[in-house]
Q: What sequence folds into this?
């Protein structure tokens, strides 16, 4: 087993991650019980904390899959500790996604762990490593939407329900964006091993700009409308209405209010 080459410290969960998880748990409890004097602040911290936890697990999934695929270097790099400070680009992988959540309510993909692909043998393993991250977002989305599609919302406080709806929106957008077959995103990493050498060589220079290209396209109203229509359709199929995600976002941005969301929907 490749894990035999790891030191104990390579797999020890980081106190940084545990601290983020603790903040998420406490503010989630405060949102559920209504303990916080300002529920919006509790929702903001709960959703932000849960979003960062999902980002850490997204990158952990990449690293863990790579470990079992043959890249034992991920342990020494600290990728298995869930510590976001160990990532290759902590700014791009944590700070920027959080800023995009605050500004636009969209789950920004982040690329953070450097996999030594030369250690990996087999195209299926390469594809699985790339797919592992966004599949984690899919799993998070399933968990967040479970109370809705299981029709188990009785007794769930309004603020907590709206927070879950908004968090589900972030996970669905992150999963879809990550799975786009665009150079630099995980979706391209899934199909890249199956492309010819000439195609890969021609596409490679675009990788650093892939995410920028995607967001430039999303600024086009027609493209943006289609994208969010798809998101809304997926969420509706899971029992989450547009009013839930909208009011969840408004509650998250506690520094502004919308009269539409001041009355329990």
A:
């Amino acid at each position: 087993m490749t894990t035999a080459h790891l030191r104990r410290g390579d797999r020890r969960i980081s106190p940084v991650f545990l601290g983020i998880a603790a903040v998420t748990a406490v503010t989630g409890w405060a949102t559920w019980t209504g303990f916080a004097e300002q529920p919006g602040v509790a929702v903001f911290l709960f959703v932000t904390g849960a979003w960062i936890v999902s980002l850490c697990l997204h990158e952990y999934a990449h690293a863990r899959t790579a470990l079992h695929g043959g890249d034992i270097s991920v342990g020494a790099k600290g990728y298995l500790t869930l510590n976001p400070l160990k990532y290759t680009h902590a700014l791009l992988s944590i700070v920027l996604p959080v800023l995009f959540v605050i500004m636009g309510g969209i789950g920004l993909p982040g690329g953070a762990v450097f996999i030594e692909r030369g250690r990996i043998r087999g195209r299926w393993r390469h594809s699985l490593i790339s797919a592992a991250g966004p599949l984690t977002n899919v799993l998070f989305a399933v968990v967040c939407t479970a109370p809705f599609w299981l029709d188990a919302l009785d007794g769930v406080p309004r603020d907590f329900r709206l927070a879950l709806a908004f968090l589900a929106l972030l996970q669905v957008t992150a999963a879809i964006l990550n799975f786009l077959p665009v150079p630099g995103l995980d979706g391209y990493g899934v199909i890249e091993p199956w492309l010819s050498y000439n195609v890969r060589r021609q596409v490679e220079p675009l990788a650093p700009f892939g995410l920028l290209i995607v967001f430039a396209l999303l600024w086009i109203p027609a493209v943006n409308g289609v994208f969010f229509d798809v998101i809304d359709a997926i969420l509706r199929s899971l029992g989450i209405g547009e009013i839930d995600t909208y009011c969840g976002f408004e509650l998250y941005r506690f520094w502004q209010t919308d009269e539409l969301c001041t009355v329990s929907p």
